[in-house]
From TrEMBL:
All copies of domain Fungal lipase-type, residue ranges: 142-307
Name the record gives this protein: Fungal lipase-type domain-containing protein
Organism per entry: Penicillium atrosanguineum
Keyword annotations from UniProtKB, A to Z: Hydrolase, Signal
InterPro entries: AB_hydrolase_fold (IPR029058), AB_hydrolase_lip/est (IPR051299), Fungal_lipase-type (IPR002921)
Tree of life domain: Eukaryota
Residues of the signal peptide: none
Length: 449
């Protein structure tokens, strides 16, 4: 029998077989001699189909990326409204029992526990903790707010990475369950680095978040811990979720527009702890992932910081392929691995983003460049209009007065250098459009969304 592949009228690949005695013109029976030198047109067509099959299937988008269920779609849409409420914290506020100018009225079963806001710039963290009671899902929710400025986001994301050690202690001995000091059985993250600003933000936040979550878990032991974050808040939620996972809390983490948090070793470590990507169990339901990293077409932030800067994405991606609001269930896809070519990694956004940074004179090899050896001190740095500070490694070179213990320094680029053709406002909307237009604390959410 001769296996051949046939493209049917409905564009579906069919595998069939031909008899040992092919009836195509131009062939002889095998027992009668060799094949003639001039094969038939049908034979040539079959050979071409076999040769081009991998490329044709890729072009037709036939991989394991699939649509999601209505249950997961509804869950993600609900969580996008929950994280949108976090933008009220630093503006009009959230009041007890759970009232605000945004979507609060849509969640009558939510009870506010606390809100927080710490620091500025890269160390800024803002959000709230609430408890969801029955008849809805019984959850303890921590929502991490994102950033208001896409321009600041892109520049802020060029901060240098620093070593990541799971279960770092914070000196708080009031409760053993909060100290998180490493023990002999604690998983090690070998050669892991993470974004310095994200880690600093989580360190500044954990002393506020963990005690409230611990108290809520003690009070409601059958409630699930749910973390949700948008933009830079998604990166902080990822670090928080990883630490809680290592504590044995088994949180559910959902991020929208999360940037890359650390290097490839860190991404692999996170995948291993949440059983994502290559660490997924063969019998696992992909929709039952404990970490969902939602991305949106044209959103540049999930592609930042750049790989050239030493960063890599982790798995668990859920991709929204429709650039407009509001997406349908057919627009939302479960992705395979950490860089599915049918998801954000395969869009036009990476090349656009790279060109934009190069045109703004921001080197792709930023950590191999040679900046001013004696930069201004972070403590006395004056922020000039139209410019944004960036953290990067200090170069001792000819600088004799520099503090050798300081790991970061401020570097500055002007956003006036970015060409208008990149339409930053469109990137801004793409970064905010996750089921709803996230980021404005107004009645019912953003009216333009």
């Amino acid at each position: 029998m001769w296996p051949v592949v046939i493209l049917s009228h409905d564009l579906q690949w069919r595998v069939t077989s031909l008899p040992n005695r092919p009836r195509f013109p131009g062939f002889r029976n095998r027992n009668q001699g060799t094949l003639l030198n001039t094969p038939s047109k049908m034979y040539r067509l079959h050979m071409l189909l076999l040769y081009f099959l991998p490329w044709l299937e890729l072009a037709m988008g036939r991989n394991d990326t699939g649509h999601i269920s209505s249950e997961l779609f509804n869950s993600l849409e609900e969580l996008s409204r929950i994280v949108d409420i976090s933008y009220c914290v630093s503006t009009t506020g959230i009041q007890e029992p759970f009232q605000c100018l945004s979507h609060c009225a849509e969640f009558p079963n939510l009870e506010l526990v606390t809100t927080w806001s710490t620091g500025i710039l890269l160390s800024d963290s803002c959000g709230y903790i609430a408890v969801s009671h029955s008849p809805g899902p019984k959850r303890i929710i921590a929502a991490f707010r994102g950033t208001y400025s896409i321009a600041n986001t892109i520049i802020d994301l060029s901060a240098v990475p620093q070593s990541y050690v799971p279960y770092f202690g914070d000196g708080d001995q009031r409760e053993e369950r909060l100290t998180a000091n490493p023990g002999p059985s604690t998983p090690r993250c070998e050669n892991c680095t993470v974004h310095a600003g994200f880690l600093k933000s989580w360190i500044n936040t954990r002393s506020v978040v963990l005690p409230h979550l611990l108290e809520a878990r003690d009070k409601h032991p059958d409630y699930e811990v749910t973390l949700v974050g948008h933009s830079l808040g998604g990166a902080v939620a990822a670090l928080a979720g990883l630490e809680m996972r290592l504590k044995g809390w088994n949180p559910e983490v959902t991020t929208f527009g999360e940037p890359m948090v650390g290097n490839a070793d860190f991404a692999g470590f996170l995948d291993s702890q949440f059983e994502l990507g290559n660490y997924t169990k063969p019998t696992a339901n992909p929709e039952a992932r404990r970490f969902r990293r939602v991305t949106h077409i044209d959103d540049p932030v999930p592609l930042l910081p750049l790989r050239e800067w030493g960063y890599a994405p982790h798995s668990g991606e859920v991709y929204i392929s429709n650039p407009d609001l509001s997406p349908t269930i057919e627009d939302v896809h479960l992705c395979v691995g950490n860089e599915d070519p049918q998801c954000i990694a395969g869009s036009d956004t990476p090349s656009t983003l790279s060109n934009m940074l190069q045109d703004a004179n921001i080197p792709l090899n930023i950590f191999n460049s040679h900046p001013d050896p004696c930069p201004e001190s972070e403590d006395v740095l004056v922020i000039h209009p139209g410019e944004q500070d960036v953290l990067a490694k200090q170069k001792p070179a000819n600088c004799v007065s520099r503090d050798e213990t300081r790991a970061l320094y401020a570097r500055r680029w002007s956003w006036s250098l970015i060409p208008a053709r990149y339409r930053l406002w469109e990137l801004f909307y793409a970064h905010r459009d996750y089921f709803w237009r996230i980021g404005l604390c107004v009645p019912g959410g953003d009216p333009t969304g």
